Amino acid sequence: MRLDGKVVLITASTRGIGLACVERFAKEGAKVYMGARNLERAQGVADRLNAEGCKVDIVYNDATEKESYQTMVDEVVAKEGRIDVLVNNFGTSNPKKDLDIKETEYETFIKTVDINLASVFLTSQAVIPHMAKNGGGSIINISSVGGIRPDISQIAYGTSKAAINYLTKIIATHAARDNVRCNAVLPGMTATDAVSDNLSDDFKEFFLKHTPIKRMATPEEIAGTVLYFASDDGAFTTGQVVDVSGGFGMPTPVYGDMIEMKSRR
Questions:
Q1: Does residue 255 fall inside a structural domain?
Q2: Measuring CA to CA, which residue among 126, 164, 103 is closest to residue 9?
Q3: Is residue 235 one of the residues assigned to a domain?
Q4: Is 166 tagged catalytic?
Q5: I want to staple 219 with a disulfide (CB 3.0 to 4.6 A). Which of 20, 151, 246, 251 is the partner?
Q6: CA–CA separation, 53 vs 221, rounded Å?
Q7: What domain of life (predicted)?
């Protein structure tokens, strides 16, 4: 029960990593608010977890409606009086349009960067005064390994995640005086619906070829790292950008090819 009595807000929380965080945090004793656009789906999750003895509620948030970040925070604070932990999980991209520097239209680039950065900047800006008033808190941004290792496509998504990594450090710097910590978790390829729906089998195979732990992460494994930053276990940790990718990109760049050659012997 590492989050017993804590009030937690998680955005984009009805599936994938966000949902795994909701489930894990609720079972660690937190009162969890699911920031979601699809309130019907979110309510289904909340009902299921509440039936298991957890404490989960829902609050409206739509990334395309920037004012909803402030109203989401205000609603939770009005009900609970505080927010102890914020998980900025929202992130989006369109792999069919978000390509390389030659083929990506500026409109696609700037729209992707804007919506992904707004989800972190606006929610953090809204929640920090409340955390400061109540003695502190923890913000965890879900970034991506693509923000530190350039890809051959998705220039907008990678740029937005690189910017979120910087935002994490500067938020940590600015908010430390209020006892508010801010860290980022950078998943590698994770077994979510988004990966299944948007990435080809060839791409997945190629990615995993260069991952020493030769499989995708589960959303629950990412949630475990997020939990560390949310809990008192990480009370003296701030401004960290942590790669949780199974070692992707860590060894020599020819790692995958060398492993293949070795296996043929």
A1: no
A2: 126
A3: yes
A4: no
A5: 20
A6: 23
A7: Bacteria
* Window from 5-19, 84-98, 162-176, 206-220 with minimum mean pLDDT: 206-220
DSSP, collapsed to helix, strand or coil, labels residue 138 as strand
CA atoms within 13 A on the CB side of 218: 5
Please tell me the distance from the alpha carbon of residue 248 to that of residue 189, in angstroms, as a whole number.
9
**Residue the block writes with tokens 């907008």:** 156
The CA distance from 172 to 238, in Å, is 6
- Condensed to tens digits (0 to 9), the pLDDT of residues 223-244 reads 999 999 999 999 999 999 999 9
**What beta strand segments (E) does 188-265 contain?**
241-244
* Mean pLDDT within 10-33: 97
Give the pTM: 0.92
| 140/240 Cα distance (integer angstroms) | 10
Rounded CA separation 20/26 (Å): 10
DSSP state of 218: P
- Rounded Cα distance between 35 and 41, Å, is 11
pLDDT tier, 187 (very low <50, low <70, confident <90, very high otherwise) = very high
Q: Tell whether 212 is covered by a domain.
A: no
Domain with residue 169: its CATH number is: 3.40.50.720
Residue 25 lies in a domain: yes
Q: What's the helix, strand, coil split of the chain in %, to 5?
A: 50, 15, 35
For 80-96, what is each residue's pLDDT tens digit? 999 999 999 999 999 89
Query: Can you give the residue range of the structural domain that contains 71?
Result: 7-194+217-250
Edge-first strand order for the sheet with 31-36 is 55-60, 31-36, 7-11, 85-88, 137-142, 180-187, 241-244
Q: Which of 157, 166, 228, 255 is catalytic?
A: 157
